[in-house]
């Protein structure tokens, strides 16, 4: 696989990873030897800054599971995390060079393998990076894979992705990923908390998503979500809120094929559209 793949997402730049390291399924060995002292320090500083503001903003399940990533001082070895993760929910982390195409991505998730980018951002990108790096993928996504219900949801999403690929419905399904796994909010103990990895790994978006009066927050509704475009380079203008991971799992258990059928040809909602529900 010499060539960087064209991936989902709306970025026009080619991804930065070295895809010549990857196997057929896009996984590679975690290039642990490549990490410099500065890389580990970047991870440590990102971890410190973000873990300091989780209380009251992040989902309780996320806060509880975060220490299971291991020592915050160094980028963890994925195999070390796997010893704990596999025991908890039978998920495992696999290293990838960066974003990968949809179908291999769905296949990994359907097999309870979570792809984690192995490289880390440069110090210049400390506050913001468009592509996922090891900090976003590990810190943002992995703690909730220790939660049995959420872990099952992500596997089901992978299976649903393979099905959607056969139905030409990936764009609709990927919006559900975006507005749940990446940017989801959950109501907990009477308040809003973040469970989406894009929020949880962002210094600025975490307090914004939970507290700012600017964005719109709607209850998660399949059709509204699947019709809503999203921005990859600004804070979200719309968030969708769930009441529990059980609710998320149950809401998405139904067959999506008829929904895709119905939504085809229906108008989309802009990322900041204020109309609450489908017309
Ligand atoms: N139920 C969905 C389908 O039939 C699959 C799915 C499950 C998608 C969970 C996303 C999340 O396509
Ligand atoms: Fe992500």
Automatic annotation (TrEMBL):
PROSITE patterns: BH4_AAA_HYDROXYL_1 (PS00367), BH4_AAA_HYDROXYL_2 (PS51410). Its EC number is 1.14.16.1. Transmembrane segments: none annotated. This is Phenylalanine-4-hydroxylase. It is an enzyme of class 1 (oxidoreductase). Its cofactor is Fe(2+). GO terms for molecular function: iron ion binding; phenylalanine 4-monooxygenase activity. Pfam families: Biopterin_H. Residues 1-21 are annotated as: Disordered. Belongs to the biopterin-dependent aromatic amino acid hydroxylase family. Keywords: Iron, Metal-binding, Monooxygenase, Oxidoreductase, Phenylalanine catabolism. It catalyses: (6R)-L-erythro-5,6,7,8-tetrahydrobiopterin + L-phenylalanine + O2 = (4aS,6R)-4a-hydroxy-L-erythro-5,6,7,8-tetrahydrobiopterin + L-tyrosine. Fe cation binds at residues 136, 141, 182. Pathway: Amino-acid degradation; L-phenylalanine degradation; acetoacetate and fumarate from L-phenylalanine: step 1/6. It comes from the Bacteria. InterPro entries: ArAA_hydroxylase (IPR001273), ArAA_hydroxylase_Fe/CU_BS (IPR018301), ArAA_hydroxylase_sf (IPR036951), Aro-AA_hydroxylase_C_sf (IPR036329), Aromatic-AA_hydroxylase_C (IPR019774), Phe-4-hydroxylase_mono (IPR005960). One of its GO terms (biological process) is L-phenylalanine catabolic process. Residues 1-279 form the Biopterin-dependent aromatic amino acid hydroxylase family profile domain.
């Amino acid at each position: 696989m010499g060539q960087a793949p064209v991936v989902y997402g709306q970025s026009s730049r080619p991804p930065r990873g070295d895809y010549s390291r990857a196997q057929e399924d896009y996984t590679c060995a975690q290039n642990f030897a490549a990490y410099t002292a500065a890389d580990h320090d970047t991870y440590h500083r990102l971890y410190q800054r973000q873990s300091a503001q989780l209380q009251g903003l992040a989902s309780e399940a996320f806060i509880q599971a975060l220490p299971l990533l291991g020592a915050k001082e160094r980028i963890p070895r994925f195999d070390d995390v796997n010893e704990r993760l596999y025991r908890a929910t039978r998920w495992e982390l696999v290293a990838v060079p960066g974003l990968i195409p949809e179908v291999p991505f769905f296949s990994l998730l359907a097999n309870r393998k979570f792809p984690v980018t192995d490289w880390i951002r440069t110090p210049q990108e400390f506050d913001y990076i468009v592509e996922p790096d090891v900090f976003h993928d590990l810190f943002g996504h992995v703690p909730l894979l220790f939660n049995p219900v959420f872990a099952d949801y992500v596997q089901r999403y992978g299976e649903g992705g393979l099905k959607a690929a056969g139905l030409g419905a990936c764009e609709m399904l990927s919006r559900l990923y975006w507005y749940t796994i990446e940017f989801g909010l959950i109501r907990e103990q009477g308040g809003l908390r973040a469970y989406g990895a894009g929020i949880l790994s962002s210094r600025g978006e975490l307090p914004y998503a939970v507290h700012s009066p600017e964005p719109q927050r709607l209850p998660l509704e399949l059709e509204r979500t699947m019709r809503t475009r999203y921005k990859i380079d600004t804070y979200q203008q719309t968030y969708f809120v769930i009441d529990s991971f059980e609710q998320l799992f149950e809401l998405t258990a139904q067959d999506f094929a008829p929904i895709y059928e119905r939504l085809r040809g229906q108008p989309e909602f802009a990322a900041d559209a204020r109309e609450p529900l489908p017309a």
